[in-house]
Structure formats: C-alpha cells, structure tokens
Amino acid sequence: MTDLTFEDSLARLEQIVGQLEAGNLPLEESLKVFEEGVALARHCAKYLEEAERRIELLTKDEAGAPGTKPFAWEPDGEA
C-alpha cells in the first residue's frame, strides 16, 4: 500500500464507502473491504501528517519558530 499515491488511496476509499453504503455485499466481503478501507484511511492520515510536518519545516523562521504567511495566489500568465 505504500506505493499508492494519496489521490489513488482516497479514490479507492471513496469506492469502498460507496460499496458499503449500497449494502449489496455479503458479510464476509463487507468485512474485507472495510478492513481495506481502514488501512487506506490510516495511510491517507499518515500521508497528511507527513505533509504537515514538511510544511512546518518550510515555514520556520530564522529562530526555528513556525511562522505563518498569508497565501497570495497569483495565476500564471494572467494579468
């Protein structure tokens, strides 16, 4: 599962939720896809935690304290 991107994991998790909400799976299959969903949810949470740590490192000031800056989005090529 570690080779799955965040986007692929999230898409598969959405599929699993849809399958479980439909209620058409036998109990054993429901348990299998539920287990897969839990693993995917944990994978996504870990990925997001790592991304947050990376962002915190990138935004630290010279003293090492986390800083915040307003986000100013400027579209490429538009003026």
Descriptive account of the structure:
- The protein is an all-alpha fold.
- The protein has a domain at 6-58.
- The chain has 2 helices and no strands.
- Helix 1 packs antiparallel against helix 2 (27-58).
- The termini are far apart.
- The model has no long low-confidence stretch (mean pLDDT 87).
Tally of contiguous helical segments: 2
The backbone outline, from C-alpha atoms, is elongated
Q: Order of SSEs, N→C?
A: HH
For the residues shown, what is the average pLDDT?
A: 87
Share of helix, binned: 55-70%
Strand residue percentage: under 5%
Low-confidence stretches: none
Question: Assembly state here?
Answer: single chain
Q: Tell me the distance between the termini.
A: 43 Å
Number of strands: 0
* Major sheet: none
Structural class: mainly alpha
Radius of gyration from the alpha-carbon trace, in angstroms: 19 Å
Could you list some keywords that capture this structure?
79 residues; mainly alpha
